[in-house]
Amino acid sequence: SEKPTALIMIFGATGDLAKRKLFPSLYRLYKRGKLSERYAVIGVARRELTNDAFQESVRSSVQDAIKDHDGLDEFISHFYYHSHDVTDSSSYLALKTMANQLDENYHLEGNRIFYLAMAPEFFGTIAEHLKSDGLTDVAGFKRLVIEKPFGRSLASAKVLNDQLRQAFSEDEVYRIDHYLGKEMVQNIEVIRFANAIFEPLWNNRYISNIQVTSSEVLGVEERGRYYEKSGALRDMVQNHMLQMVALLAMEPPIRLNTDEIRAEKVKVFRAMKPLEGDAVKENFVRGQYGRGLVNNEEVKGYREEPMVDAESNTETYVAGKLTIDNFRWAGVPFYIRTGKKMAAKSTKIVIQFKDIPMNLYYQTEKTLNPNLLVIHIQPEEGITLYLNAQKTGEHMDATPVKLNFSNNCIDHMNTPEAYERLLYDCMRGDATNFAHWDEVALSWSFVDKISEIWEGTKADNFPNYEANTMGPKEADELLERDGFFWWPVD
Ligand code: NAD
């Protein structure tokens, strides 16, 4: 396999993301032999730290995440630290000297990855300085990896993008959507395009509706300050939920390469019917959690959480009905829902097939269950196909049976592995599983119309769902109106 060589510069190296995801992921790549011996990492953050102290923090983050950690001494010996306030112009030259030195010592061929794991308000400044102070003048490749959120509206995303694009071309910008690094999200493509039994049915003649759920049991925890300005629509729908919809709805690409796949995804966003005025209310539901019982103990409502306004209008839950206006999907609703403090932690896709033309198994007065294909994304990873078959010993009776394929995973291993895959892709220069600007722009313009209305009108029914439930009743009504219901996620 390819073993990319690069200098990886992590901005925000003392932060939560670096600790929980980036260091353990790099270590896993190292352990699997996917990292060449020629790599070096510069951690950049404001705090004063020696190289040794930084290496120890990398060590403990790996130890916290991974049980078996041999070779750790060698692994962390490639880590260096630069204390640096990203708003201080004079500091970039020292960083450049350090980078050039490591480039030489480790024979890194002038390949550089700049990973921005810090607050987005700094992204623009950093990119500008990287260019103006010559850190991007390299003989090899230069790539910029940036975390969500990518703006908070189309307008702010444009401003950010223009700043980045002064220093990096679109090809060099890797916008992380960590859902795209998940095993089973990547599997959507394989399930669809590598099986004769699904793709021929993957359209409005055979599918009645598609449901995408991403529910969390956690509340806003310590992130109230950020979340108040974001909400579930921006935090989850604009990126992760719409990305999953695009993968489910896209046409088969001519080839499985970055440009072809992204081009097909972009077409889905373009076919998504924009919602305006009353259509927002008819097709989208917002929710906010109130108090509720978890293990017989009352837990706080969102408005009582730290750093949250006591009359907050921020949604912690969104359910919506998407319409994709093209030949394949006309008439097939795509329902999405996501929220915090829900009854189950689950990311799941349910594809519900249409009923067969006539039920021959009416003797027992049972309606036949529809065929379902369920893609389990997390915490379980796998697929389940629901069929009807005759039960042993019973005559001519159709009963639901489940065909199960399980990737059997442990949840805490899950997310770092998404980062591991994405980091590796970035090192190899494969941008397929990162969001292209066109996708980001189109999904913001869809979401902006909804957030403008939600921000302009106070939700007078907030809080409208109890903690530890599956969301407000309006979300159930959204499907009931169409004759459907949310399939249970657990
Ligand atoms: P954090 O607050 O834990 O860490 C921020 C880092 O930035 C620290 O290392 C800090 O020293 C550094 N920093 C802050 N101001 C600086 C300055 N002026 N100069 C130099 N360094 C400075 O944040 P985090 O949770 O690690 O998140 C980082 C980014 O990743 C954010 O954009 C966040 O939205 C995104 N993100 C985080 C997670 C997560 O799980 N933590 C998940 C998805 C996206």
TrEMBL record:
Single GO term (MF): NADP binding
Keyword NADP assigned: yes
Chain sites annotated for binding substrate: 178, 182, 216, 235, 340, 345
EC number from the UniProt entry: 1.1.1.49
Superkingdom to which the source organism belongs: Bacteria
Enzyme class: oxidoreductase
Record HAMAP family: G6PD
Protein name per its UniProtKB record: Glucose-6-phosphate 1-dehydrogenase
Organism expressing this protein natively: Cytobacillus horneckiae
Name of the encoding gene: zwf
